[in-house]
Fold each of these.
Amino acid sequence: MRRARPGAVPRGMGGTPSRRVAGAAGEERALAGVAGMHADHGGRGAVAEAEPQVRERNASRLWHVTLSVSGDEAPTAEVRRALEQLAHDHPFLLTSRYAGDHAEIRYWEEARDLHDAAALALRLWGEHRATAKLPPWEIVGLEVIDRETYHQRLAEGYGPPPARSVGVHPY
């Protein structure tokens, strides 16, 4: 992922003069003038070349998330009820495993990139702690992998075993 200053000219745009206009969701896109058109591209300008890159960069992807939490012992019935409520509040939850002092949650997250998926995952437990009445445990582990890697691991027999079934289960 390329990082640049806000308003910087994207790669592939060269030094061609362009205007910047606001697009959907606050994104900016470059508009090249006639001077920015290249005859060797059949009349397509630098903008036509950059648009697929912008769409690809902003496209959401699916990420498999495994979140591990741990803390002081809590009644398992309360842990189960809280995880069931979390599953209701967070519809992409695949499975949860729990004991009295720890739990593991697996789910799919849709995000633009790994950083966004990880940030969302790290906020999940804290944001739902009050509404789902989750135990006051801390996050002790996080794994975020893309869909292709998840399926490759399963095909090779590595990685976490597939979820028994969707839902909340004791260890």
Amino acid sequence: MCSISTRCLILACGNTLRGDDGVGPWLAAWAEDRFRATPSVRVLCRQQWTPELAEELASAESVLFIDASAASPAGSVLLSSLQPAGGYPSPATHSFGAAELLALAHELYAARPRAALLLAVGAASFDLREGLSAPLQATLPRACRVIEETVLRLLDGEAPWLPEHRPAH
């Protein structure tokens, strides 16, 4: 079993060459800058989540996953609680999601973060191009506020605030 070494792990995912899929790396860079002076916060960003990240999860008190969502309306911001998946895919696949990583961390290290959350940002396009779409650019300030509020609450030991966050219309 791993000992807790990170109070809050921010784990973002995305590809900056696939349009709005780059929101994860963008928000990770923002979070890295925002929490630079807070050693209890660790920010990691990968193009995809892989089994190797289970060890990072096992040593985290809480985790905030960040990813673009094709299933959500473009520009929406949704913060939700996350439970470990009932199983996880073969390590040879490219389909590791946040819930599968939580399950793998529990299986390999008998560890589970106190709080596991997913921030899903609705994407308009995953086309091969650099840069974020206009709807996604417009929602970045809201997504940053949600990250900041969530991380501060997690660091204070408070339960995260989980209502759906959507841009005002």
Amino acid sequence: MTVAAAAAANVGPARAPGLARRLACFVYEGVLLFGVVMVTGLVYGLATDQRHALAGATGLKATLFVVLGVYFVYFWSRPGQTLAMKTWRLRLVDAEGRAPTAARALLRYLLAWLWFLPALAWVGLSGLRSGGVTAAIVTTGVLAYAGLAFLRADRQFFHDAVCGTRVLDASPRASAAAPAPAPAPGDPPR
């Protein structure tokens, strides 16, 4: 993506924000999604007349997977920002500097599970059941996945590289630092 395209998309220079900022956004996204998960669980429990937490657990997990997918695909493909990304001033763009299409956002959602799946698979295969150990393994897996961004020159995550998307700085100071795009023919001078 060119700097002019980034400026036109109001996302600042075409570089990834720092890893700490993206991870802070990741954690904040989890805090916000807690409410989405709780409301979804309540609606699911009422709709299925669920009387025990383990009864219908597979259906609840599938429902949560779909609801979270709808949340992310909608926000990534419309404004290019989830609520947490807006707070942390991050924007998801495609190679042309626009919000990704719904299909690209869906692919990104599916591949973003790589943050968790390897660690969760290891926990499941090892037979560990302690909540603290599980949390430590998943946290280690998430940090290891995030660290893989340092293997790429553009510092983007693996799922973004595969999907052709980038997380960019959307703060006003980054946008001001980028040069304005050249005026189109026939536009009045600025």
Amino acid sequence: MQPGGGTPEQSPDAGRVLAVDWGGKRFGLALSDPTRLIAQPLVTLTRRANHRAPVADIVELIARHEVTRVVVGLPLDPEGNEGDSAREARALGEAVTRRSGVPVTYWDERLSTAAALRSARTAGVRDRDSRARIDQMAAVAILQHFLDAARAAATQARGHGGTEE
């Protein structure tokens, strides 16, 4: 089990996965290919101050891209505990499931923004000029980690764990 309650082996074997990098102002989204090998940036959604998360927009993207699983990044503190942000991310996930019928997995996002910032800097992207792209890159990091973990779990379940006796 992954911190935040996610277990990739619970995910259906086929179909696209949508990842959401939850944020107070912006939500970066990433989408897998149908074979679940590669995560790619999709879009960044915004919400105005004191407004609800863009659940309707996420549900519309789920339908448009035939998504079969949603992964919501769970913002945990350094010790792995959930605070207010994690509770809000869980509420978003619950609303998405309620409105779309698509199952949601919560995934530890503690390192996703840092990885996205490193990638952005390597690519020459300036932080303050490209926040929306960085949010998408964080969603890509969350999704790729989920996809890699799901593939590893599936391989191990088939008895190909790579260990010999």
